[in-house]
């Protein structure tokens, strides 16, 4: 039996803690208004080579997703889209490609958040080290400016290929949105959250029409390295989110 034959409401669902963490990230992304209707998708690898992964079901609002709703898929299973309850085709295209091509990217979060997507729509989408949040991503961003339609098959493979470099945490997808990758749900959500904040600072600074005080490459690189050594913050961020959800939306753990 393929792992995709597992029913999402099975009482003996595997990878329960991973499911809880991922469900929490969906709920909080909706609260931060970084979701897009019933579109966009997150995934988390659960086996050693990264080919098997959890992902949200097709066209379910982020604010409703529960741990038991998450699909368990295999990036190397060509029959995935032929089964009942198949994932969104673009989700399968992007995340299947990513987990085949980039096993180091254990978790992946794809969104069309407003400010990051504005950046992706610019002729020059490079995020300058304008403030501390922007500097966190110095040298950590890949850019794909060759948008070729919905992320299906070859388009998905081409776009995700830009994340083969393990130093890249964010892919700015031209005319589309972003893909954020990391080792854990906590790490990836934290990166996504701060990248959207960084983009918002940059976009709103542009609105002023005034000259920007961009920091030097040397200082930006220093900030990025220093931030990389403080990874515990990401886990505390997610732990705090789960504590709030435990009080306010405990069904995310169902």
In short:
The protein has 254 residues and is of the alpha+beta class.
Describe this structure in words.
Helix 1 (16-31) runs parallel beside helix 6. Residues 1-9 have low confidence and may be disordered. The protein has helices at residues 16-31, 89-101, 114-120, 132-135, 154-160, 185-208, 217-228, 232-248; strands at 41-45, 52-55, 71-74, 107-111, 141-144, 170-173, 177-182. A 7-stranded mixed sheet has the order 3-2-1-4-7-6-5, with helices on both faces. Helix 5 links the parallel strand 5 (141-144) and strand 6. 42% of the residues are buried. 39% of the residues lie in helices and 13% in strands. By secondary structure, it is of the alpha+beta class.
Topology of helices and strands:
Blueprint: H1 16-31, E1 41-45, E2 52-55, E3 71-74, H2 89-101, E4 107-111, H3 114-120, H4 132-135, E5 141-144, H5 154-160, E6 170-173, E7 177-182, H6 185-208, H7 217-228, H8 232-248
Parallel strand pairs: 5-6
Antiparallel strand pairs: 1-2, 1-4, 2-3, 4-7, 6-7
